[in-house]
Amino acid sequence: MAKHLLKFTVNGKDHALIVDSHERLLDVLRDRLGLRGTKEGCSTGDCGICAVIMNDRLVNSCLTFAIQARNKHLTTIEAIGTEENLHPLQDAFMKWNACQCGFCIPAMILTTKLLLDQTPNPSEQEIKASISGILCRCTGYYKIIQAVKTAAVEIRGDN
Q1: Of the candidates 120, 136, 133, 109, which has an alpha carbon nearest to the alpha carbon of residue 53?
Q2: Considering only CA atoms, which of 133, 128, 143, 150 is closest in space to residue 45?
Q3: Domain count, the chain
Q4: 74, 77, 51: which is closest to 130 by C-alpha?
Q5: Sign of the dihedral through C-alpha 45, 4, 37, 116
Q6: Whole-angstrom Cα distance, residue 73 to residue 70?
Q7: Do 96 and 150 belong to one domain?
Q8: Residue 102 CA to chain centroid, in angstroms?
Q9: Are both 113 and 139 inside the same structural domain?
């Protein structure tokens, strides 16, 4: 089995690891770096639960080989807000009670953060399109959409 040196940046911190050719990015994040906020759902790329941001693009970490992250910048849920200072999306999700089991929420937050970074005033259709790749079995999506709208206003400072 081939080994590779993986140098990459995760949540603003540089890392250098030796990884196997077949090692998934999801496993490196969770098991090697201890970033357990990234969840594993279907392991086939269908549910989007394992989504992370890689170089300003959403990727399913269960389908991405770790070595594909070489020289890339990754953002996981651990880099979004803190317990003392929530990101506006996290605050809005709480206000709208937009999470029940919470399993999809890391991916939802990352997906919608990427949307709001690129489109500060998204339409409801744009919000729906951005979250369409993430399966949520609990909320029915309405409260998630409302939370994203609320956070967009907060981030823009329109309130």
Answers
A1: 109
A2: 133
A3: 2
A4: 51
A5: negative
A6: 9
A7: yes
A8: 13
A9: yes
Average pLDDT over the chain, rounded to whole? 95
Same domain flag for 150 and 92? yes
Do 63 and 107 lie in a common domain?
Answer: no
Predicted TM-score (pTM) of the model is: 0.93
Range of the domain at 62: 3-79
Closest among 107, 117, 113 to 87, alpha carbons compared: 113
Give the pLDDT confidence of 40-71 residue by residue, as tens digits.
999 999 999 999 999 999 999 999 999 999 99
Please tell me whether residues 59 and 114 are part of one structural domain: no
DSSP for 48-106?
-TTEEEESSSEEETTTSBGGGGTT-EEE-GGGS--SSS--HHHHHHHHTT--SS-SSHH
Residues 75, 121 within the same domain: no
